[in-house]
Design a protein that fits this description.
Di-haem_cyt_TM, 4 strands, two-stranded antiparallel ribbon, heme, mainly alpha, Cytochrome_b561_oxidase, about 5% strand, binds protoporphyrin IX containing FE, single chain
Length: about 190
């Protein structure tokens, strides 16, 4: 893991923070994931559980596919940026296990941010249900196979739940650092730090 390149040192004697670009990537991702998880459950509940397959359900599915597809490419770009530019050195007061734990969690989040939308895309290719708002179709990644589609979309759903649980742990850790440990971890990723 490259460390220590993509840092911005702020103010006199202040610890380095993530670059504006890294922070932009982070907060756009947060907004997208916060929309995608409830949207996924809402559309699936309306369609599969309530059995309502109208224009609203279709629009919910289309939005989910479109935002998820864009998030996949955003994550790919973010990962390239991260691998090329690295991250600021760890907050200096952290224990070794806090550094190890946060790195593990961050890379697990990156992995799921790639795998979850990719499985969604493979799932709708297999179904097939590639149309977005009746305007255009996503490029297919596999030929039709409805049984496989259901299996892939079930795994997609479970991994999305895992992603949501890891995000909760990540937010819990950020709040722990800010409120209880009162160190500089949260500040490193705040959008407003110049
Ligand atoms: C990070 C991005 C994504 C997240 C967090 C996410 C999350 C979810 C969640 C929480 C569900 C509901 C699962 C359930 O009901 O058990 C779901 C369902 C679904 N997702 Fe995604 N999703 C993402 C990306 C995508 C993409 C890119 C596509 C397709 C291009 C997609 C297609 C679907 C489909 C078709 C379903 C419904 C499955 C069904 O009707 O049973 N998702 N997603
Ligand atoms: C969908 C929600 C979120 C996802 C997927 C996510 C993902 C990530 C990832 C992948 C990193 C590692 C950055 C890197 O080193 O390349 C990171 C860092 C960070 N995130 Fe999040 N994040 C989310 C929400 C949040 C929220 C809501 C907060 C604040 C309450 C937050 C605070 C932070 C902080 C402070 C760091 C830097 C940690 C450090 O200095 O090592 N994140 N996040």
């Amino acid at each position: 893991m490259t460390q220590g390149h993509d840092e911005v040192t702020t103010g006199a004697g202040q610890a380095p923070v993530y670059s504006p670009m890294a922070r932009r990537f982070h907060w756009i991702t947060v907004a997208a994931v916060f929309v995608m998880v409830p949207l996924g459950f809402a559309m699936s509940y309306r369609g599969n559980t309530l059995n309502i397959w109208d224009g609203v359900t279709d629009a919910l599915y289309s939005s989910h596919k479109l935002i998820g597809f864009l998030l996949l490419w955003l994550t790919a770009g973010r990962l390239i940026y991260r691998l090329v530019h690295g991250a600021p050195p760890d907050e200096p007061t952290l224990e070794w296990w806090q550094k190890a734990g946060s790195h593990l969690l961050h890379w697990a989040l990156y992995g799921l941010l790639l795998i979850v939308p990719l499985l969604g895309w493979i799932g709708v290719s297999l179904f097939p249900s590639l149309m977005v708002f009746n305007l255009f179709g996503l490029p297919p990644l596999a030929s039709p196979d409805e049984v496989a589609a259901k299996r892939v979309l079930a795994i997609h759903g479970w991994l999305a739940i895992l992603l949501a649980l890891l995000v909760c742990a990540h937010i819990g850790a950020a709040l722990f650092h800010h409120v209880i440990r009162k160190d500089g971890v949260l500040r490193r990723m705040l959008p407003s730090v110049k």
